[in-house]
Amino acid sequence: MKKIANPRRNNFLLTFVWLKALFTAFRKTEKTRDILKTLDTDENESKTARIRCPHCKWQPNKVSRWFCADCDAPEYFYGGCHTSWNTFETGGICPGCAHRWIWTSCLRCGEWSRHEDWYEKD
Predict the structure, then answer these.
(1) Which stretches of the chain drop beneath a pLDDT of 50?
(2) What is the distance between the alpha carbons of residues 43 and 36, in angstroms, rounded to a whole number?
(3) What is the value of pTM for the model shown?
(4) Which of 107, 119, 113, 101 is nearest to 48 (CA)?
(5) Is 46 exposed, middle or buried (0-12, 13-18, 19+ CB in 10 A)?
């Protein structure tokens, strides 16, 4: 009598081999540790490293996003283009409509301050 293969066992083995290959591909090696250290250093030395909210001292990072929209006080800007971007990567200029934002609101405390006041002076 011929023995029939168990399909559940075959699926388990395939899954196991696939997961092992996946985890092996993403394991940390000395080379990946060096790359991660370099990326961490680059992040700390990025454009936003010396930028802080003048009110609460919160520091934005590369993924922080502002939204170009109509605004009453203090900017009094009507004609926002609804672009989402990091305002400190463009110096306060909207990449969608080229409006130069004089005021920037803090994503943490919500207070408005002049865009230039966010940059720390040496």
Answers:
(1) none
(2) 10
(3) 0.59
(4) 119
(5) middle
